[in-house]
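Re: weekly structure request thread

Next one in the queue (340 aa):
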Amino acid sequence: MFVIICATLLFSVRGIHAETGASPDVSQGNCSIIINDLTESDSGAYQLRVSGLLNGFPDGLTYSERAVLSVKALTQKPSVMIPPLTEGQPTTLTCTAPGLCSGSDPEFTWTWRGAGEKDSQITGNITAFKTEDPTAVTQSHSSTLTFNPSAEHHSSNVTCEVSFRNNITAEETVTLNVNFYPKILNSSKCEVQSGVLTCVCISKGIRLPYIIWPLLNNHSEYSVITTVSHQTIHSTLTVKDHSNTVVECVGRIKVGEVQHTIPVITSQKREANQHGPSAQLPWVVVAAVSLFVNVISIILIMFLWHTRKKVKPNQEDRTYMSIKNTDVSSDYEVIAQPLN
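Done, posted below.
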């Protein structure tokens, strides 16, 4: 009688037991095993040996069929997912380890390198490790990096390094593209009055730019006034003797610039607009109201004049005077004079 004790996968060339992650269950007719954390040294031909007791004595059977295993160096790289980056808004980068493997969890390391600088950690970051189980025998490992991108991160490199057992590593480097170029608002405008061009360029953003007027390269006499308030910059340009129909406004910061073209509006166009039907309407209303008031005033004056002529003077409508005699007396003469 043969009693099976265990089934073992043997490395036929060296005769060494391979490191397995699960033991076969012969009682269930399952002799499958999983080898974790493979290295190139695990390459070779493998045979299945069944060990047990025969009539009370140890015995075994080695199957002649061989499974040839070839392990190559890790060539896959981690995958790094980068969402759109905007200065001042928190963002999360995700790094996923290559392959779907079981065994030991890998370690993740995030590093950042600016232009001409050494590798360093990204300040203010939050890292998190995550493991998913797509199947019963495979796992997916990933790491996230959450930080606030700034202008200094633009065009810099971020590296995600994944370290496995047996000194096996893989890394991926990506370049960050941070959207920080402040916008020039559409409310910027240019207008000509009496031969003088006045332009206003308005920009708003977390990092305000330096406003440049390329038009000034061809002028020696001009005026530029710049004001800043509440993350908004206003640059007002005044210049004479121009022939431009459009004016370019440039907002420049350390790592880039944004351009905006402003059309020139002349005062003649404004006057033409003011002579339209909508512009004439207020004057018609004023003239009508004035005529009405004048007519009412004339009628009222004529009515009062006509009423006054019909009124007869009475005794009360008199002017009284008192004259004192030359001799001292308490008597006075009263002279009454009718009103005209």
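Residues 40 and 71 are 5 Å apart (CA to CA). Residues 1-7, 11-20, 269-275, 313-340 have pLDDT under 50 and may be disordered.
Next request, please.
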